[in-house]
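Below is a concrete protein record.
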Amino acid sequence: MSVEVDEKCKTIFLVEDNRADIRLIEEALKNSNVPHQVVAVRNGMDAMAFLRQEGEYVDAPRPDLILLDLNLPRKDGREVLAEIKADPNLKRIPVVVLTTSRNEEDISQSYDLHVNCYITKSRNLSQLFQIVKGIEEFWLGTVTLPPG
């Protein structure tokens, strides 16, 4: 009996308005052991269009993991999270809030909206890399993700 390893390329959907953070997160994931692609959008309206495969995103891949900032232009991350978790076609995609906010109300509201986990970004480069590597190892290496 042979065991088949899932070598399917994972899609990490990054919803982040800060270009520097996008570059840093992509860099932190560069030497991953898990085949993956990072797709980034910079506002909440584009995030929902991507997830619903609308407009320019009609051929968008279904993400295996969503990394979501809370403070976004056009539609904030709280609204995006609420829409994802209310949509029967999207609600099983794991969402990790990755934000600078340490506000207790943001944390509580995110969990009330069924976020899978809430992580506060570090402004320290090596700590941010450690956080992102930890997310990648846990969510793409350890966890059994729901089928697409």
